[in-house]
Design brief:
By secondary structure, this protein is α+β, with helices and mostly antiparallel strands. The chain contains six helices and six strands. Strands 1, 2, 3, 4, 5 and 6 form a six-stranded antiparallel beta sheet that branches. The structure holds zinc ion.
Length: 200
């Protein structure tokens, strides 16, 4: 069973989601929601899903970047993205701190903006504290692609989408991305689209 993923234009994606209490996190309702979010994320497939994307305005995200999702991306591009598998995990009430604010620029998409992507700047490294599915304190420090996922998902809880941060000139369909841009460096993409070169 899976949930419907709401699309850009649904007001829930623009609301500030409310925190969960520890008792709520451990409740049967939230435990079931987590399982459904996991199934929904895998079915999509996606590397992260925030509760507002399934219509629940609560501060809860699930993340998983499976090795199989990275097939078809060249080793060179994976290194460029700093992308490595991340096991499934849950974060409730995440609080994000920037550890390294230097900009990292890559294509990003969203299950709530189906069929499109764009170059989106993100901070190089972040720390996230919060609670896991057992309401235990967790702390994550991440750089590379995982840091990007954490920033994208916490943005959802604050009513923000990647399109608020993207370089609009790079906005494109997934089909165009796969056809023309998938295996090119970000520097090449910027040059061709008339964007300033990315910071080193
Ligand atoms: Zn998203």
């Amino acid at each position: 069973m899976k949930l419907k993923i709401v699309q850009a234009g649904d007001p829930v994606l623009r609301q500030t989601a409310r925190p969960l209490s520890e008792d709520e996190i451990r409740s049967a309702a939230i435990q079931q929601l987590i399982e459904l979010m996991r199934a929904t994320m895998r079915d999509a497939p996606g590397v992260g899903l925030a509760a507002p994307q399934v219509g629940e305005s609560i501060r809860l995200v699930v993340i998983e970047d499976r090795a199989e999702y990275q097939q078809g991306i060249s080793p060179e591009r994976l290194v460029e993205r700093g992308r490595e598998p991340v096991p499934f995990h849950v974060i409730a009430n995440p609080v994000l701190t920037v550890l390294d604010a230097s900009p990292r620029l890559f294509f990003e998409g969203c299950l709530s903006v189906t069929g499109y992507g764009a170059l989106t700047p993100r901070h190089a490294a972040v720390r996230v504290t919060g609670l896991n599915e057992r309401a235990e304190q967790i702390q994550i420090e991440a750089s590379g692609w995982y840091a990007r996922i954490l920033q994208h998902e916490t943005d959802h809880l604050n009513g923000e989408l990647y399109v608020d941060r993207m370089l609009a000139r790079s906005f494109m369909t997934d089909a165009a991305y796969r056809k023309q841009w998938l295996d090119r460096s970000v520097a090449e993409v910027c040059a061709e689209l008339g964007l300033p070169p990315p910071a080193a």
